[in-house]
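#onboarding

Welcome to the new folks! Below is a worked example of what a typical request in this channel looks like: someone posts a single protein sequence, and someone else replies with the predicted structure as tokens. Don't worry about understanding the tokens yet, we'll cover that in week two.

Example request:
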Amino acid sequence: MLSLLLYFNSEAILGTTPISFQDLFVYLMLASETTKAAVLSSLITIIGFIVAYATASANWKDQMRANLKVQASSDCIGFYSEASRNVSTCVIYARALVSAVEKIRSGCTKEEAEFLVYYQRSNLDKFLLARESMIASSINCHTFLSKYDTILFSTPGAKENVELANEALSKLVNDLWFNVPYKVAPDTDQIGTFLAQVDVIKCKKFLSTANEYEQALAFHSGATSGVLLDQIVGASWATTKTQLKNYRSVWHEMNILYRRHKG
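Example response:
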């Protein structure tokens, strides 16, 4: 670009008029065979260098793009797998709370009720840690999207699946705020306090949301990782055979997710 700029503006910049292409062609036609051979050899060298540079640059860009896709896929698996584990922890705890309240209200013995209260309160810290991690994940998921936006936008289906996974995570976090049975001291009626603390309605609402979106979170995050690696690994006969073998179950699950999303 600099050479072309100097060539077309040499008179204004340098005060000289460069030789035109027509004059250069006439000069080459009148030059000796040795000069022609030298010029031709130089042109071949320059063209070869340009081709080699362009090829190496394209290969380097492809390699860097592939490395970014592998990194994005790895980060996607790590990030959303942790979110899914935390969802499972919260689901297990919410289900256990509902079950404990129903057993106590159905008329179990005092010893059984006291054990249920003790057991649920002993698992409270694990739930609170999982809930805090889920809240952090619902914020950091947007950081993941912005970090790899160029790769996700350039890969068909990647951005859409990330957005659907983030939507599922957001829905889960929104219904995660239900009362938990903190230990109160002194407490002469631990069973009654436990029953008053647990909001069964909100627990069941979270469980309903989890039943609807927990699978979608895992599906769309896995789909994101899959489409990122697909353009690197490529299709094979083994892949096609596996897909054909499991197409009924895959199609069934996709139909469920589609109906839930539309509903």
